[in-house]
Amino acid sequence: MERTILPGLAESEFGVTSKTAVVSFIATFGLAMAGSNLVVGSLTKRFTRRRILIAGWIIGIPVPLLLIWAPSWSWIIGANLLLGVNQGLCWSMTVNMKMDLAGSR
Fold this sequence. Notes:
Strand content: under 5%
Largest sheet: none
Number of strands: 0
Radius of gyration: 16 Å
């Protein structure tokens, strides 16, 4: 939903008219998620999957508030950065936990 609404808000609320600037929030999310996915494997050697999952959700808590009260476009970019880290940590751990539950079957 965010990807369909924010480009319109970028122009009407923040005066961002460049397509590159509007797409920047998607790129920020993708890079943050890719980086989190890359790092999460080594984090599991030091922390349990449960703790990484909880950390991911804690990182995601401020995202809706940042999006609601964003005074500038940079806040939107920051919120998407946090959302990317949240998704990278949470999705990776959720998939691994499901594989543990299902076993080799």
